[in-house]
Design brief:
The protein is of the alpha+beta class. Helices cover about 20% and strands about 30% of the residues. Bound molecules: 1-hydroxynaphthalene-2-carboxylic acid.
């Protein structure tokens, strides 16, 4: 035994390590995620977010965000191994200055309707439940109406592929020389061009693998879910669950982040399900419970509107809905599917 330990010490000086000591953990029989399920109650978190509103301006902070950190990844600005999530606050009259980075971002609006975001020369108004995309390497800035014109604090969920780009060491960023980028297109231009089940003849995929629609408004999403719930059938595991698409390709709206919206009718008792994409959930409407299990451990997350939780890879989840529940969620599924490694299981009990 000592011979071996001496041997390990000797080779360590040469930056060499014996594979046979770690083979079983490197190639586990099934995923053994360090990432933990976790729940953020909005009413508990909100006062702290508002406190940040009086401690620092958006101009100084650049982005005033409380990062939702997984308890197993404290200090790493990660909610799963591959994804970042945070809740961003913009106060009336503030501008979050323009910049761009290779990380892709999504905004899911949680509270308030008086803010806008500008991406690539076009503004969109943000409303609760809207799913908004900031494609990789596009300038973006956010603003909010002044208080005298009805501006209220606005909060949204940011989802970014930061840990993924850190993994690849592929992150670049730069600031725009002014706080706000110039507007070159009228509000609603992208939606008319790309969001009406049509495409311009000369469509050139200027965002490559990212959808050219940059605001998927909640009103449209909600109406589709309602119609499908009425028409049925409602899936025993997922209720009525849809994924957001790039209308030009039929593929995911974002290349690195899959986004979903689902409706669980009041009284729904879902069957258990697990998959390999750790998922971040933002509750839009209704009360219910997420029951998460892994091995002999169980987490019960009773939830209501604006609450957030994370479901790690290969943890089993089932949902119960008291009211009609609407859940927005995102994960790294597009990447796992592109690599051919995504797995999912519908379980019976
Ligand atoms: C960012 O640019 C935004 O533009 C939000 O709102 C969160 C977290 C890390 C790096 C860049 C934004 C971010 C971010």
């Amino acid at each position: 035994m000592n011979d071996r330990l001496n041997y390990y010490q000797d080779i360590a000086t040469l930056q060499l390590a014996p594979l046979w000591e770690s083979l079983h953990t490197l190639v586990p029989k099934e995923p053994a995620p360090a990432v933990q399920p976790h729940f953020w109650h909005y009413d508990t978190l909100r006062p702290h977010l508002m406190r940040a509103g009086s401690l620092i301006t958006a101009a100084e902070a650049v982005r005033r965000v409380l990062v939702l950190e997984n308890p197993a990844l404290t200090g790493k600005a990660s909610i799963t191994q591959s994804l970042y999530a945070g809740l961003q606050l913009i106060m009336p009259g503030e501008i979050a200055p323009s910049h761009r980075h290779t990380q892709s971002a999504l905004r899911f609006i949680v509270e308030g309707s008086t803010a806008w975001t500008a991406v690539n020369g076009e503004r969109t108004q943000m409303h609760p439940g809207d799913f908004i995309i900031t494609p990789s390497w596009t300038f973006h800035d956010h603003g909010n109406r002044i208080e005298a014109e009805g501006g209220v604090p606005v909060v949204w969920l940011d989802g970014l592929d930061i840990p993924m780009l850190r993994f690849f060491d592929a992150g670049f960023a730069e600031n725009y020389p002014e706080a706000e980028q110039p507007l070159t297109r009228a509000e609603g231009d992208s939606f008319a061009r790309y969001g009406a089940n049509m495409l311009p003849l000369e469509y050139d995929a200027s965002y490559r693998s990212t959808s050219p629609i940059f605001n998927y408004p909640y009103a449209r999403t909600r109406e589709a879910l309602e119609t499908l719930r009425r028409n049925g059938p409602v899936d025993d595991w997922h209720g009525v669950k849809m994924r957001y698409v790039n209308p030009a390709t039929g593929g995911w709206a974002m290349p690195t982040i899959g986004t979903f919206m689902q409706l669980l009718p009041a009284g729904f008792k879902g069957k258990p399900y697990r998959n390999t994409d750790g998922t971040v959930v933002s509750v839009v409407e209704g009360r219910g419970t997420a029951i998460v299990t892994r091995g002999d451990r169980t987490w019960r997350f009773p939830f209501g509107p604006r609450d957030h939780f994370v479901l790690p890879s290969w943890h089993t989840v089932r949902f119960e809905a008291e009211d009609d529940v609407v859940l927005f969620s995102f994960s790294d599924r597009p990447v796992q599917q592109a690599l051919g490694i995504h797995r999912e299981q519908r379980l019976e009990a």
